[in-house]
User: What shape does this take?
Amino acid sequence: MPREDTSIAVVNDDRDSAAAVAGLDALDTPVERTTPWWQRFLRAWLPPIVALALIVLVWQVVWASAVLPEYQLPAPGDVAEAFGRTVVTGEIFSILWTSVSRAALGFLLALVIATPLGLVVAKVPVVRAGIGPLLTGLQSLPSVAWVPAAVLWFGLTDATVFFVVLLGSVPSIANGLVAGIDQVPPILPRAGQVLGATGYRMARHVLLPAALPGYLAGCKQGWAFSWRSLMAAEIIAAGPALGVGLGAYLKNGADVNDIVQVFAAILLILVVGIGIELLVFRPLERRVLRARGLALSV
Amino acid sequence: MTVDLTTRRPPARDTAVALSGVAKTFGTGAGAVTALHGIDLTVGDGEFVCVLGASGCGKSTLLNLLAGLDAPTSGTVAVGAPRPSFMFQEAALMPWLTALRNVELPLQLAGHGRAARRARAEELLALVRLEGLGAKRPHELSGGMRQRVSLARALAAATGLGDAPGAGGLLLMDEPFAALDAITRDVLQGELLRVWRATGTTVVFVTHDVREAVRLAERVVLLSSRPGTVVREWTVPAGGHDTEARTALHDDITGRLRQVITSHAA
Assistant: This one.
């Protein structure tokens, strides 16, 4: 019977093609290589720990050789002790809180301003032609330069600090977003368009997520700039209304020629910078890149 | 027992696409380039049409006109489907979304609720034989699998939740298998035919591969180059197992295509 034959042939055909598809999929699927955690630990953490130990060792050797007087180069042990003292008295927490909360608030404010700004600069040619160069210029202008002007405008208040922080970080974040959007493969917005995305939905569902790696790099740089600007502002503009942050702590040490405190302050500033990078930005970046198959090597 | 061959082809179809006297010119004055000229083309509802042509025949321009991404310089373009959906040579999946969320995206953009669009996306992934792989990211899939996700996404865009009456939709395909290796292409052509039969979607498929056109299409339309005009149309014999007729057709079309190309040599 021809009819029955055809239906059997169709079923067999379907089963054949299902098997062919399954076989191809099995052969072609990219293989994910996973490295055990201890190997990742060795690769990611051991080198910086060894490097740090070497730096402290060199420091100790230079101090012990006494080529520099004690008031210029303190012993690593003394700095660690001063550091420990601030922890015991709890002073360190109020200092850190003052500075870090300010930097974080300033950074968040910068995000709120820079994100729409970057989007507009990237997508509206007239705006890009108009203020694109200005944004890049502002990025290369050290935001410390704004401190004197800000003190004249706002006095020794938080407004001065935030003003300087914003001018430091907004251009970086906005430029990062612009670069991120520029690097989006043109096929993605095109695909978004034929799937029905326009205007806000295009930005929300296609452009912003596609630009996320570049945007995140901009945010990272923006954080570094806002932290740097904050320290500069705190060192230059010290006043009772501003409280004692890390910058003021450093300045106080310098004012009384206490090199140990100066070193402890510098180390703390460095530790906060590295800590935020390792605890916030690195995991975020890793997640974003890994989801896109662009994982970092370590 | 007799088999009535005439019933294989539905006698009268609604029109999914109607182009009449369509021309498209880019630029003006001396530098103007006419991509398409005097195109008359009708595609029935649920029909599979391959548009074949060498480089510069305006294939992509034609698809852009059908998708509504571009407007014709003269003539009329009538498309029945509310939203023609598009498939490219690249899968063009959003790399930050899982396979399932990629298929959901057009439904999300159309404003469908989470549960409904998830169920529909899972259904479509199963249709392209990617059941259970919805959680994979595009970079974890092979090229052929990505292109199938893209097909599922295009079907989601074309047919929505698939519950509207006559929601076969219109699928525009711009050489979707050209970037794949020969084995995968062969398998995916079969898959596309299976999916097309299962969904009743209208397909306009652009290619420069005569074999592909003859294998897939019910009707092959040959375009000339610079400007693109319809040279000839062929109806492919139904049934699929009549290799002799297909070979003859393949040779016939290849011959005409060769003529079109050589006419540009001078």
In short: Chain A touches chain B through 34 residues (CB under 8 Å). Chain A has a mean pLDDT of 85. Chain A has two domains: 37-73, 76-291.
